[in-house]
Amino acid sequence: MAQKAAKQQAARNTSILQRTHLISLAVNASFILLRVLVFQASCTRSTYLLYGLLSAPAFVIEFWFERIGRPAMAASGELKRSGEDLEAKGLTEYMWDVLYWTWGCIILTTVFGDKAWWAYLVVPCYSIWLAWTTFGGMKQGMLGMPGGGDTDGMTNGPTSNRQKKMEKKGGGQKVQYR
After folding, report:
1. How far apart are CA 163 and CA 37, in angstroms?
2. Is 0.85 topped by the overall pTM?
3. How many Cβ atoms sit within 10 Å of the Cβ of residue 55?
4. Which residue among 107, 138, 163, 178 has its CA within the 20 to 30 Å range from the CA of 170?
């Protein structure tokens, strides 16, 4: 069972990419068909311009996933490269979020018209919130480090029995823990 994990990764990536392409085809084809056939009265040049501009991130992300995730096979049929993990955390996860939200906005625009593209503003707002909370978490984590910020609000750790006896006697050396 040589390269069992790589073969499983390749199979998983292939199925994820196939599903992604089918969903993308269904969403984009339904937009074009419904806007041309059903909602043709409200379909203008700006409709297609907004569609092209605001669905471009989904196409770029889908192309990127295809490029990094598609397994490569050698001429002999053996697995040459399994592709990157398309279920990874971090940037890949964020790109999936943008892709799903873009598809949702396309569906909303198909049904409700051009004003539904305003829902796409959630993506930059989410990015700003994510960056703010990440920075805020790092800032809070740095407070406990020496020289990492203002530690006035932080309480000292638990005191030992020896320290308590020394303080009770009214003197001695006071030790401050960080």
Report:
1. 83
2. no
3. 21
4. 178
